[in-house]
C-alpha cells in the first residue's frame, strides 16, 4: 500500500455540484471512490488558497493512484494532482543506499559526493 495526497481545485462545474450537494456528501462520494479501489481515506480537508481540497489516502499502488486521478480529472469537476507520500523509515532506507553520481562539471573519479 502506498500513501498519497491528492490536491484538488474545483472548476466552475465542480463548485456548482459542491454547493448543491454540500461538503459532507462530496466527502462521502470521494471516500467511496477510494474504498472501491482497495484503498482507505486517512484525511479529507477543504482549504482556502490555491488548493480547495486535500485527500490523504492509502491505495494499493501507483497505477491505482494514477487511475483515480485520471478518472476524477476526466469528469471535469476537479483539477487534481497527486503527491506520493514517503515514510521516515523509507527515507532512512534511502539514506543508506550508495548512489554512484557525478555532478555536472566534476571529473570522473574525483569530486564525487
Can you tag this structure with a few keywords?
4 strands, elongated, 4 helices, four-stranded antiparallel β-sheet, alpha+beta, Alpha-Beta Plaits, 113 residues
Structure notes:
This protein has 113 residues and is of the alpha+beta class. The chain has one domain (2-87): 2-Layer Sandwich (Alpha-Beta Plaits), CATH 3.30.70. It is built from 4 helices and 4 strands. It has helices spanning 12-21, 23-36, 62-75, 88-96, and strands at residues 2-10, 40-46, 53-59, 78-85. Strands 2-3-1-4 form a 4-stranded antiparallel sheet. A hairpin with a 6-residue loop joins strand 2 and strand 3. It is elongated and about 65 Å long.
Q: Based on DSSP secondary structure assignment, what is the total number of beta strands?
A: 4
CATH topology: Alpha-Beta Plaits
**Which structural class should the secondary elements be placed in?**
alpha+beta
Annotated CATH architecture:
2-Layer Sandwich
Average predicted confidence as pLDDT: 94
Q: Describe the strand arrangement of the main beta sheet, using strand numbers.
A: 2-3-1-4
Q: What's the CATH superfamily, by name?
A: Lrp/AsnC effector binding domain/regulation of amino acid metabolism (RAM) domain
The major beta sheet can be summarized as: 4 strands, antiparallel
Distance between the termini: 33 Å
Q: Note the run of SSEs as H and E.
A: EHHEEHEH
Number of helices: 4
What is the 3D form?
elongated
Q: In CATH's first tier, which class applies?
A: Alpha Beta
Unreliable parts: none
Structural domains: how many: 1
Give the quaternary arrangement of the chains: single chain
Our estimate of the beta-strand percent is 25-35%
Helix share bin:
40-55%
Q: Rounded to an integer, what's the Rg over CA atoms?
A: 19 Å
Amino acid at each position: 500500500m502506498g500513501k498519497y495526497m491528492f490536491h484538488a481545485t474545483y472548476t466552475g462545474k465542480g463548485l456548482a455540484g459542491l454547493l448543491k450537494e454540500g461538503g459532507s456528501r462530496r466527502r462521502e462520494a470521494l471516500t467511496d471512490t477510494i474504498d472501491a479501489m482497495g484503498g482507505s481515506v486517512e484525511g479529507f480537508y477543504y482549504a482556502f488558497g490555491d488548493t480547495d481540497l486535500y485527500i490523504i489516502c492509502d491505495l494499493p499502488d501507483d497505477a491505482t493512484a494514477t487511475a483515480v486521478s485520471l478518472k476524477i480529472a476526466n469528469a471535469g469537476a476537479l483539477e487534481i494532482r497527486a503527491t506520493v507520500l514517503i515514510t521516515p523509515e523509507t527515507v532512512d532506507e534511502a539514506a543508506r543506499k550508495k548512489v554512484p553520481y557525478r555532478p555536472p562539471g566534476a571529473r570522473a573519479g574525483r569530486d564525487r559526493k
